[in-house]
Every structure is written in C-alpha cells, then in structure tokens.
C-alpha cells in the first residue's frame, strides 16, 4: 500500500484577505504544515495543487467577465498565474519532494485530476506511476475543489480519507453537503489524528 497526501489549493486568494477568502484558510495552511512536520515519514508522495488561471479572458466561463459572479459557476478573478494570489499561503511549508500540480489553465479546473505537473503529465497518470492506492485529502475549499478532487480520486480507484480538521469551505451548508456526498461515494471522513508515524 502506498499512501499519498493531496493538498488542494492552499493559496493566498483562498485564504483571509484573498480574492475568494475562505474563513479558516490560514489556519488550515498552518495545520497542514504541523502535520507534515510531526509525521515526516508517513507519506511516500505529497502532491499540492494550485489554481493557475489565465490573466486574459474568462477561463472558459469560470471568471465573471461581463456580469456579476454567481459564486456557483462564475467567480471574480482569482489565482491568476504568476501573481501573489496564486502563490501558496506563507504558513504552508512543503517538503522539497512535493510534486506541484497546476490546474485551471484556461479552464475552471476544480479537481486536481484536471491538473498537470511541471512536465505536463496528468495527475492521474502520476498516481499510477507512483503506485499510489490510498490518498489523504486536505485543503481548500471543502465544497468545491476538495469535493471535486475527492470524487475524482474515488472514481480513479483510490481509497480516500478526507481530514475534516484540515479543510475549510465557502459556506457551512454546502460544505456539509459535500462531505456527505464524499462519504456516500466511499470516502472515509476522519481527522488527522489517525496519522501515525511511519
């Protein structure tokens, strides 16, 4: 069994003060760093995704360009490639071995499975190549990109745990619905206390 940690979109624009701030986002960043520091040998592979949207255009309807955003399918501009908003939050400390995944390049890109690494290889192919069978999922936001990534991981055949103490969502009700959907699909909802030193 090979277990990976998947860190979803812990970026400045999704944390307090950002373009699409999620309450508790900065705390999630710090808590993920604390988990990695306390258990440096638990994960054979660590993947971290970032939204990396194009500055020009609407990213295939994702950015509200000529209308007000509905905050469901259309959003204000956020996580534009090579801007401060797209960078990881300062409280997130990642090991050098972390594989960085960029998604949403000209597209909405909710799921990490829509992303690629620096060489252009798709995330799902990276998991297969690494022999990953189990993933622990953390990050932002519960009701959007964490939800989409978890459902895709299950569809991909992964055994999925979602650490409910290391996620934060846009809204309480939609976050609860997302977790219920993930659990119904086969994900295990747990806290990071289940992580043991390898």
From TrEMBL:
Enzyme Commission designation: 3.5.1.19
Key words, A-Z: Hydrolase, Metal-binding, Pyridine nucleotide biosynthesis
GO BP terms in the entry: pyridine nucleotide biosynthetic process
Domain Isochorismatase-like: residue ranges: 4-193
Presence of the UniProt keyword Cytoplasm in the record: no
Record InterPro entries: Isochorismatase-like_dom, Isochorismatase-like_sf, Isochorismatase_Nicotinamidase
Signal sequence segment: none
GO molecular-function terms, A-Z: metal ion binding; nicotinamidase activity
Pathway: Cofactor biosynthesis; nicotinate biosynthesis; nicotinate from nicotinamide: step 1/1
The UniProt record lists the keyword Hydrolase: yes
EC class of the enzyme, as a word: hydrolase
Family assignment from sequence similarity: Belongs to the isochorismatase family.
Protein name, as recorded: nicotinamidase
Organism: Cryobacterium zongtaii
Lineage, highest ranks first: Bacteria, Bacillati, Actinomycetota, Actinomycetes, Micrococcales
């Amino acid at each position: 069994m090979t277990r990976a940690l998947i860190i979803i979109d812990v970026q400045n624009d999704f944390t307090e003060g950002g373009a699409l701030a999620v309450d508790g986002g900065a705390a999630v960043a710090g808590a993920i760093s604390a988990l990695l520091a306390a258990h440096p040998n638990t994960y054979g592979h660590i993947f971290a995704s970032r939204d990396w949207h194009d500055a020009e255009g609407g990213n295939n309807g994702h950015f509200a360009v000529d209308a007000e955003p509905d905050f469901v399918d259309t959003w204000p501009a956020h996580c534009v490639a090579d801007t401060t908003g797209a960078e990881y939050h300062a409280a997130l400390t990642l090991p050098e071995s972390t594989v960085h995944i960029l998604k949403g390049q000209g597209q909405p890109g909710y799921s990490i499975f829509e992303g690629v690494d620096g060489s252009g290889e798709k995330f799902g192919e990276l998991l297969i190549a690494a022999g990953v069978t189990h993933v622990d999922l953390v990050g932002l936001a519960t009701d959007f990109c964490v939800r989409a990534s978890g459902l895709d991981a299950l569809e991909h055949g992964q055994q999925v745990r979602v650490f409910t103490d290391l996620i934060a969502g846009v809204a309480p009700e939609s976050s609860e619905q997302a977790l219920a959907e993930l659990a119904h699909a086969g994900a295990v909802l747990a806290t990071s206390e289940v992580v043991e030193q390898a």
